[in-house]
Design brief:
Arc Repressor Mutant, subunit A; 2 domains; six-stranded mixed sheet; 12 strands
Length: about 280
């Protein structure tokens, strides 16, 4: 292969790192791939590191020693997160998103990769310092949201089922009160899905009263897991009633809901932005 110029090599290195976030890559791999000395690769990585920081796309983490290397940590700047959430809030406030029963239609946005990826980065940036070991969500529209968060953190994801599945094997089940319907429902998790005493990050798409989040917390207690954080995309703040859980963070808040006019008012959560 024809030897690359330094600028071309740096672009290739950046692409390799960003294509494999949270993966430790040894310098010898780069040296062999591009046919150059490790000292030269180190200089290239320093330049790439500065470029990533200036562009707000993340940072490089260097691990020294024989088994060391470099790892790309994807992040999002507070400025970019603020702009993104403001635009998303505007879209969720558009007329026609209110469904029968007072629900907010979000499915089109929760399955859009261009929207999901920034949301995953925002959650990851807010909770990375809590050092979670696994991302947990429930069998709802929050699955893609939890998946991109797990990817940004480099963690596995576990999905809690809304009922028992014979294909899951032995499982732990609990009853909980759904915040939206106020009905008693069941959630379950296979005993093989989650090791005991793990540090868990809970991600969900919507919180009304907090019944589902409380149910997940109680289920995690059955696995002796430590819930180190709970993040939700949209939190309903339509009443003064306190939520059934504490210590959660929401990206957006639903402040008003006009059923007759078909309009809603969604705004970014200022407290969450301060966490970034």
């Amino acid at each position: 292969m024809e030897k690359m110029k330094r600028a071309e090599r740096m672009v290739a290195i950046t692409q390799m790192l960003m294509s494999n976030p949270n993966v430790l890559t040894p310098l010898t791999l780069f040296a062999e791939r591009f046919g150059t000395a490790k000292s030269t690769i180190s200089e290239d990585l320093m330049a790439v590191k500065g470029s990533l920081l200036l562009s707000g796309q993340g940072r490089l983490e260097t691990i020294s020693g024989a088994a060391g290397g470099v790892r790309y940590i994807p992040e999002i700047s507070q400025e970019e997160a603020t702009r993104f959430l403001s635009k998303l809030a505007e879209r969720l406030s558009e007329k026609g998103r209110i469904l029968a029963g007072g629900f907010l239609y979000m499915t089109d946005l929760l399955y859009d990769p261009s929207i999901l990826r920034p949301l995953g980065l925002i959650f990851a940036s807010a909770f990375r310092k809590e050092e979670p070991e696994v991302v947990v969500t429930i069998e709802t529209k929050g699955i893609p949201l939890a998946l991109v968060t797990a990817e940004a953190l480099g963690l596995p994801m576990v999905v809690i089922r809304t009922g028992n599945k014979v294909t899951e094997g032995s499982s732990v089940s609990i009853n909980y009160v759904s915040g939206s319907s106020r009905r008693i429902q069941t959630m379950s998790l296979s005993r093989r899905a989650l090791d005991s005493k793990r540090r868990v990050l809970v991600i969900d798409d919507f919180m009304k009263a907090g019944g589902t989040a409380l149910g997940i917390k109680n289920l995690m207690a059955e696995f002796e897991a430590d819930v180190v954080g709970t993040g939700v995309l949209v939190e309903a703040q339509l009443t003064l009633e306190p939520k059934l859980v504490e210590g959660y963070l929401s990206l957006l808040q639903l402040r008003e809901l006009d059923l007759s006019g078909g309009r809603s008012s969604v705004v970014p959560d200022a407290l969450f932005l301060k966490r970034l």
